[in-house]
What does this fold into?
Amino acid sequence: MLGAALAVARKDLKLALSGAQGLVQTVLLGLLLIFIMSLSREPGEMSPPLAAAAIFWLATAFGQILVFNFLYGLEEAEGARLGLLLSPAPTQSVWLGKAVAGWVLLFCCQLVFAPAAVAFLGQSVAGSVGLGLLVVAAVDWGLCALGSLLGALSVGRSSRESLLTVILFPLLVPALLAGIRLLETVISGRGLEAVGAWTGTVVAFDAVFTAAALILFPFLYTGEE
Amino acid sequence: MAQGLLRLCRVSRFYGERAVLRNIELVLAPGQALLVVGPNGAGKSTLLRLLAGLLPPSEGEITTELAPGEIGYLGHKTLIYPKLTARANLAFWQAMFGLPRDDAPIEAVLARVGLSRFADEEAGVFSRGMSQRLSLARVFLTGPRLLLLDEPASGLDPASAAMLRREIRAAADAGAAVAWVSHNVAADLAVCDRVVLLRGCRVAYDGPARDFDPSGLAGECVC
Amino acid sequence: MIRLCALAAAAVSILAQYAIWFYAPVEETMGEVQKIFYTHMPMAWWSLVSFVVVFVASILYLAKRRDVYARLAGAAAELGVLMSGLALATGMCWAKPIWGVWWTWDPRLTTTLVMWFVYAAYLLLRASDVGGQRKDTVLAVLGIVAFLDVPLVFISARYWRSIHPAVLGSQGGGMEPEMWLAMAANLVAMGLLWLALLAARTKQLAAGAAVTALLRHGASRN
It folds into this structure.
């Protein structure tokens, strides 16, 4: 399973980075969101760290929708999904491969969003950058586990990105709340006492939806149109 | 009936309230090339998807002694990633099917379908016929015990179509089961062992190829 | 069964309404407004039960592939969205005069709102053509995932608040015995109504499916 998952992830990353179309669109949309949200403060003022963290995760959440639509769209263009299903590898390896590829792509996008958020929203990072990266990576895994599962919704005859947004966003609420709080802590350097509880939430979210996806994905990803 | 690789028992398939296949009985035997013919909408493609296990039957039962990964399927779509080269496409399927990473088999199948010269070009620039040949290469690469080919000759020039017929015959002679949808009955009848005619969602003929009279198909196929 | 449930619901509802307006005393600090609570809480409760039904029916559908479970999940989701929506609306009507705001960050409120969003999206999906032939499977997966999310939403919503001091005490503290009795009557009445609606809607969906099946097999006999 791991070999096949790696093959899927490697192939997807190659396609995403060679064409670069999918990734560029995601980055542009995120930057636009951050810029527009920066209008919510008077010129010269700083946005509160909480607002900056929320805007960062909002950009990430929208980026995630585009990333997973792109990743699953790859298989639909010439019907490659059928080939994946006929391979001896378990179907879950497709989920895992796409989740890993999405995780890498999302992280790349965030590497652009983070300085943009600092610049447009007038932030100065007081906490540790390393901790920030760790937080982002952990929350991203939860987003990608669920995104890769529900991205499979958009396969077949009717793929509607807008529908995926409506379904995915409310489900992501726990991960986003945790991500926002933890990132606020990193930016402001305050509120460290709550880190433990939020870390627990992130770990629980990651674990629950990784397990759920491993069980449920084969039901979603089938040869039916 | 003889023990087959794959057996369909009273299988029906519906799309919503519309029936596509009704009460199909079919056994696929190793070493046998089966030609599936019939007018448009007779359920040929659906039958192949059922055989591949890509669609569950609405009613009835499918039993198989095939392990996962032993089916080679070629559908209406080419299953190609247009942004990858022909070689990279095949290398991906090699990895997905758990085969050892090895260039030699890839070169061999590319030569078989006559694409060696284009191995390092992006598959997206291929013509319809070349894409179809790359698809065939993918099917041959994994050495399947059951080949399911849905109009494999579409887009192929006469020489390539003849190559395809030779390959299909060779695969069957090597012990694989082949089920094969085609509209070019006149030419394909010669290389197959058995014919199934689908009409009105049912099997209208199932028997040896030599006893099959294609004249009744006037207007439905090239005869 | 449906008729019996509906009749019982009507009878108990009359009793429950009487209990609200004439039996239970008027709450001292909140006044008449507090009576919304007798309708609000049963709806919130039974909407949660609806979502549990969606969850269980979805698991059963994936395990057994019987259409009846898909229909049950669909009917329960409709009721859940309806009741949690009404619970939210009545809750707002209560919050405005008591707390002075229409909406505040409270774990229960937030969880209910997020669940309302999730299951409204579920219904949207049911009405759309997503998944094509696999729609019931897709919905069952979503029904399971949505319910797994509920405790996570609740926990994170609680942490979110706890960083700031809680402004509002828990609701409904210090209720008199008559009030509890009125509440129980309303819970039962709403439950019977819920059961009747659930059964009726499931039956209706089954009838629709039966018509489709008749079309299918009727054509096969010709």
Q: What stands out?
A: The mean pLDDT of chain A is 90. The first helix of chain A runs from residue 2 to 19.
